[in-house]
Amino acid sequence: MCAPVIPRSLAKNTRGLRSQLKDSVPVTGMGPQVGAYGVQDTLRSGFSSVKNELLPSHALELSEKNFQLNQDKMNFSNLRNIQGLHAPLKLQMEYRAARQIQRLPFLQSSHLALDTLKGNDESISFEDILNDPAQSEMMGEPHIMVEYKLGMM
Amino acid sequence: MALSNVVETPASGFNFENVSRNVALEGLLEGGHTKAPKPMKTGTTIAGVVCKDGVVLGADTRATSGEVVADKMCAKIHYISPNMYCCGAGTAADTEKTTDLLSSNLTIFSMNSGRNPRVVMAVNILQDMLFRYRGQIGASLILGGVDCTGNHLYTVGPYGSIDKVPYLAMGSGDLAALGILEDRFKPNMELEEAKELVRDAIHSGIMSDLGSGNNIDICVITKQGVDYIRPYQESEYKDKRQRRYKYRPGTTSILTEKIVPLELEVVQETVQRMDTA
């Protein structure tokens, strides 16, 4: 993210502000749902609010969204330091292969191979109990889901 | 009906969609006077002591919801595995769910590996889980157990901090209970002495703290097995309400008895073979 442009007239009192803003970590993942022309798709996602896009509404929202990714990154970098570059590369290749054998997006796939690789078949956590996708109350329109997955939307 | 704004299946796990709605609602309802209902806390006294033959855990049985006693016979000592039990203080639902998850994970592990889980493994699983949720899960736990390496007593805080200690008290009545424990604890105590010490500690917590009360439960874990005494001591302010209104057989006396045999004759008999292989 580039540093913000502060008008000259206000620059007297905002010299400190610029350095503070430069040090802040850009927040990703809360961005708007981009539609076809790069702006908020109001028809699908409703009205947008700047606050909702920038700030997470709950303390855990961001950390939970990226938790699995961060764990994987940490584990892979540990593995690379211990065993060398080949170890995470081979594992990631297997993950990629297992991720490809899923059903179409609007159908439930069992993720059996992926779960076994990641070790999720030997543990129970809140992901297995709460909000089971097989019991979700909202059903998506099949054509739109497939188009979204193929990047045509 | 298929919705056209759902483009991918919702992720499993915690869902934060309603958080901003709840924050907005809190302010709107009757100009901020009405508040959301308070979750049931256990407002507790729990204590644990390591003795010569094993570990003794104790807890009171009151669960409060705000200023009302919600449950007079709450079970605060949860089963984790055949050799480990866990006392929970804090939000009642959080402690129950966390200990249930822990117990399920350890059962899967012991089935996979064929061994009894060690106490350190349970503590590490708890610590990872509670730290991941940054204290939003309000569960302070005392985990005690006996495994191949000895008798252990650990405390796990809601933010994921752990401590390994020979005697311990947690909950809102912990200061009173800790006073008794600090005064009379000796290393390598006998089992009966340890039970009396834990009972006295919980009793002082009940007397001095509003959030603890009613009966005392004791759980003794040794190498031979577990003795879960519920209740160990009942409060003298128990009310005489009957909890079950089912009458035992023999309450109504039988005056006369007359037996009339029903005569049946066999008209037709068919045999169907069942294939039980």
Automatic annotation (TrEMBL), chain A:
<dbReference type="GO" id="GO:0005737">
    <property type="term" value="C:cytoplasm"/>
</dbReference>
<dbReference type="GO" id="GO:0005634">
    <property type="term" value="C:nucleus"/>
</dbReference>
<comment type="similarity">
    <text>Belongs to the POMP/UMP1 family.</text>
</comment>
<dbReference type="Pfam" id="PF05348">
    <property type="entry name" value="UMP1"/>
</dbReference>
<keyword id="KW-0143">Chaperone</keyword>
<dbReference type="GO" id="GO:0043248">
    <property type="term" value="P:proteasome assembly"/>
</dbReference>
<dbReference type="InterPro" id="IPR008012">
    <property type="entry name" value="Ump1"/>
</dbReference>
<protein>
    <recommendedName>
        <fullName>Proteasome maturation protein</fullName>
    </recommendedName>
</protein>
TrEMBL record, chain B:
<keyword id="KW-0647">Proteasome</keyword>
<comment type="similarity">
    <text>Belongs to the peptidase T1B family.</text>
</comment>
<keyword id="KW-0539">Nucleus</keyword>
<dbReference type="GO" id="GO:0005839">
    <property type="term" value="C:proteasome core complex"/>
</dbReference>
<keyword id="KW-0645">Protease</keyword>
<dbReference type="GO" id="GO:0005737">
    <property type="term" value="C:cytoplasm"/>
</dbReference>
<keyword id="KW-0378">Hydrolase</keyword>
<comment type="subunit">
    <text>Component of the proteasome complex.</text>
</comment>
<protein>
    <recommendedName>
        <fullName>Proteasome subunit beta</fullName>
    </recommendedName>
</protein>
<comment type="function">
    <text>Component of the proteasome, a multicatalytic proteinase complex which is characterized by its ability to cleave peptides with Arg, Phe, Tyr, Leu, and Glu adjacent to the leaving group at neutral or slightly basic pH. The proteasome has an ATP-dependent proteolytic activity.</text>
</comment>
<dbReference type="InterPro" id="IPR001353">
    <property type="entry name" value="Proteasome_sua/b"/>
</dbReference>
<feature type="active site" description="Nucleophile">
    <location>
        <position position="44"/>
    </location>
</feature>
<dbReference type="InterPro" id="IPR029055">
    <property type="entry name" value="Ntn_hydrolases_N"/>
</dbReference>
<dbReference type="InterPro" id="IPR016050">
    <property type="entry name" value="Proteasome_bsu_CS"/>
</dbReference>
<dbReference type="GO" id="GO:0005634">
    <property type="term" value="C:nucleus"/>
</dbReference>
<feature type="domain" description="Proteasome beta subunit C-terminal">
    <location>
        <begin position="240"/>
        <end position="271"/>
    </location>
</feature>
<dbReference type="InterPro" id="IPR023333">
    <property type="entry name" value="Proteasome_suB-type"/>
</dbReference>
<keyword id="KW-0888">Threonine protease</keyword>
<dbReference type="InterPro" id="IPR024689">
    <property type="entry name" value="Proteasome_bsu_C"/>
</dbReference>
<comment type="function">
    <text>The proteasome is a multicatalytic proteinase complex which is characterized by its ability to cleave peptides with Arg, Phe, Tyr, Leu, and Glu adjacent to the leaving group at neutral or slightly basic pH. The proteasome has an ATP-dependent proteolytic activity. This subunit is involved in antigen processing to generate class I binding peptides.</text>
</comment>
<dbReference type="GO" id="GO:0004298">
    <property type="term" value="F:threonine-type endopeptidase activity"/>
</dbReference>
<keyword id="KW-0963">Cytoplasm</keyword>
